[in-house]
């Protein structure tokens, strides 16, 4: 989908020891398409809760569910899509102008987020009608 998508990180395992587990490295300028200035993680969320319900004007992020499972619904001017994140070696890139909702936090889900900017409350659009108007103004000529 426009301005978002899944990608796979390296998953380094042992070829000699079956149960040694995996290591996924994330290095600056390699795995992530922007400089990471901040990270945060979301956890302890009840299964019935829905978080997010906003978009960002400039922020780029990569979301990784490092434990459990969570659904991420994205909507932008060109369509919408729901991704289930349940693999710590998979990242979901989310660019600006995507309305996001995180739901179905299951199995002690921990959602790690790598962000391109420091925290800025002014970068958020939390009103859905304002989000629609913002995207119409920005992308309306492209459709
Ligand atoms: C996003 C989704 C995936 C801070 O003080 N610093 C921070 O870096 C962040 C991210 C949040 N906060 C404060 C602001 C609020 O008082 O933490 C509180 C909860 O934030 P919010 O309601 O925005 O949380 P979510 O889970 O709805 O959204 C978060 C991010 O804010 C957002 O950028 O894309 O996760």
Annotate the secondary structure layout.
Elements (H helix, E strand, L loop, with lengths): L3 E5 L3 E2 L8 E2 L14 E6 L7 E6 L4 E16 L2 E7 L4 E5 L4 E17 L8 E2 L2 H12 L4
Antiparallel strand pairs: 1-8, 2-3, 4-9, 5-9, 5-10, 6-7, 6-8, 6-9
DTDP-4-keto-6-deoxyglucose (T46) binds next to strand 4, strand 5 and strand 9.
Description:
- The protein is mostly beta strands.
- The chain has a single domain (4-139), classed as Jelly Rolls (Sandwich), CATH 2.60.120.
- It has one helix and ten strands; from the N terminus they run E-E-E-E-E-E-E-E-E-E-H.
- It has one helix spanning 128-139; strands spanning 4-8, 12-13, 22-23, 38-43, 51-56, 61-76, 79-85, 90-94, 99-115, 124-125.
- Strands 1, 4, 5, 6, 7, 8, 9 and 10 form an eight-stranded antiparallel β-sheet that branches.
- The longest helix has 12 residues, at 128-139.
- 21% of the residues are buried.
List keywords for this structure.
single chain; 143 residues; mainly beta; Jelly Rolls; 8-stranded antiparallel sheet; two-stranded antiparallel ribbon; 8% helix; 48% strand; binds dTDP-4-keto-6-deoxyglucose
Overall tally of domains: 1
Broad structural category: mainly beta
Number of strands: 10
Name the helicity range. Answer: under 10%
Report the major sheet.
Answer: 8 strands, antiparallel
- From the alpha-carbon coordinates, what is the Rg to the nearest angstrom? 16 Å
Count of alpha/pi helices: 1
Q: Any idea what the shape is?
A: globular
Strand portion = over 45%
What is the CATH superfamily classification?
Answer: Jelly Rolls
The residue-averaged pLDDT reads 95
Q: What is the second-level CATH architecture?
A: Sandwich
**First-last Cα distance:** 15 Å
Low-confidence stretches: none
Question: What is the CATH topology descriptor?
Answer: Jelly Rolls
